[in-house]
Amino acid sequence: MPAPPPITEPDPSALVCPGDKVGPCTGCQRKTHRYGIGGSPLCQWCMEPVKAGWGPAVRFVSTRP
Ligand SMILES: [Zn+2]
User: Fold this and answer.
1) Model-level pTM?
2) What distance in Å separates the CA atoms of residue 42 and residue 7, rounded to the nearest whole number?
3) Which domain of life is it from (predicted)?
């Protein structure tokens, strides 16, 4: 994952979705594909660490030896 560009740069998803589905990321205020199908309140740069945090947390941890 490359370092995030400056927040003045829109998320790549904002460039390929309809303009009325674009909104500010709730994390960094960057323009991102926020609404509608495939939209997210977080840009991909803010979403990445969140998804990484979900990974181990959602796994069932067995206590059996
Ligand atoms: Zn963001």
Assistant:
1) 0.73
2) 12
3) Bacteria
